[in-house]
Amino acid sequence: MKKNARHIGCVSSQPQQVLLLKSLLTIAGDRADSDNVWTYSDSGHRDAVVMDLDDDGQVVSPKDVDSDVVVAMSRNLAALEGQPFALQKPLRSKDIVHLLELLDKHLGSSAAPTAAVDMSTSGYRHGDDRLQAILALARRKDSKILLLDFGGPQAYLDIKKQRILLDREFPFAVVAGGGRISVTEAATVPAGRHVGISVADFFYEYTMSAQQAELVDGLSLQARYYIRQWPQFLKASNTKALIKLSAYFSRRKATINAAAQDLLVGVNQIEAYLNAAYVQGLLMMEADTAPSTAMRSTAPVAAAAVKAAAKTAPAAAAAPHGLFGRI
């Protein structure tokens, strides 16, 4: 199903607010449960415009900014009272997601079908299509169990528990080649030899198994990364390396290349770790660039120096109780 293109703008005297909104829209603008894709636009008709009340305290009407909706934004919570659409500073990814959900409803968007996903028409364009699809599915707000069919190999995604159940000999090296994936709902996970791992484990193992590691959409090779909480890993393999990476990114901000040099590990392992932290909503980034559409490009671009949180962490990831949760 082709999604609707929606545009949102911002009127603010503070350039950092505009840059942060742009960065967060890059992360949250294309949600799996919406028919709309939200992107930033500086001019022309916009479906919504964010108005910074801290500039003059006045809310203009939609017709004044050629928009269907005006979203009030301020650091002062009292200034936002009574506003139908509002954002409080500092902007956070979860607040952007909530705003877009409200705008979808207001503009008459219906939820996209969730019974199946066909990657040939899904609209995911960057990085590894399969990994992008699983990222979107893992962040859905329901309690369904989904059967992921990779064209032979299968796995079960338990959205509520943020677990993926698969065979002990799951062929990551084969699956990580990308391609089509079909997704159907399952009532339960059949009894058998399935092993449960966290979504972070899956993203780490998948990225490490790929012939060329890819960052998920929203991450940039040039950004500086850190974590606000250690990811929840349940798989015992590579324990030493993952502890080392978690300790490193919990204490400093670093680019992928800098981390690889400091830790004496491959860039692919750093990218795998960042993907794992990102899916659980624990990764923070200080973006020196807008996320690149050519994921492997290292061409320098203008610095933006904005902080952008990853998408809201799933409830199950809020209190890790696995290997790292006990440390």
Describe this structure in a few short sentences.
The chain is of the alpha/beta class and 327 residues long. It contains nine helices and 13 strands.
Descriptive overview:
This protein has 327 residues and is an alpha/beta fold. 28% of the residues lie in helices and 19% in strands. It has 9 helices and 13 strands. A 5-stranded parallel β-sheet has the order 2-1-3-4-5. It has a 5-stranded antiparallel β-sheet with strand order 9-6-7-8-10. Helix 6 packs antiparallel against helix 9. The C terminus is likely disordered.
How are helices and strands ordered from N to C? EHEEHEEHHEEEHEEHEHHHEE
> Helix fraction?
25-40%
Q: What does the average pLDDT come to?
A: 77
Cα-atom radius of gyration = 20 Å
Q: Tell me the span between the first and last alpha carbons.
A: 45 Å
Kindly state the number of beta strands. Answer: 13
- Low-confidence region ranges: 109-126, 289-327
The profile of the biggest β sheet is: 5 strands, parallel
Structural class: alpha/beta
Strand order of the main beta sheet, please? 2-1-3-4-5
Sum up the overall morphology in one term: globular
Number of helices: 9
Strand content: 15-25%
Defining key terms:
5-stranded antiparallel sheet; 327 residues; 9 helices; 5-stranded parallel sheet; alpha/beta
Task: Provide the fold topology.
Layout: E1 4-11, H1 15-28, E2 36-40, E3 48-52, H2 53-56, E4 70-74, E5 86-88, H3 93-106, H4 129-138, E6 145-149, E7 154-158, E8 163-166, H5 172-175, E9 182-186, E10 195-198, H6 199-209, E11 224-227, H7 239-251, H8 256-263, H9 267-279, E12 283-287, E13 306-309
Parallel strand pairs: 1-2, 1-3, 3-4, 4-5
Antiparallel strand pairs: 6-7, 6-9, 7-8, 8-10, 11-12, 12-13
Helix pairs in contact: 6-9, 8-9
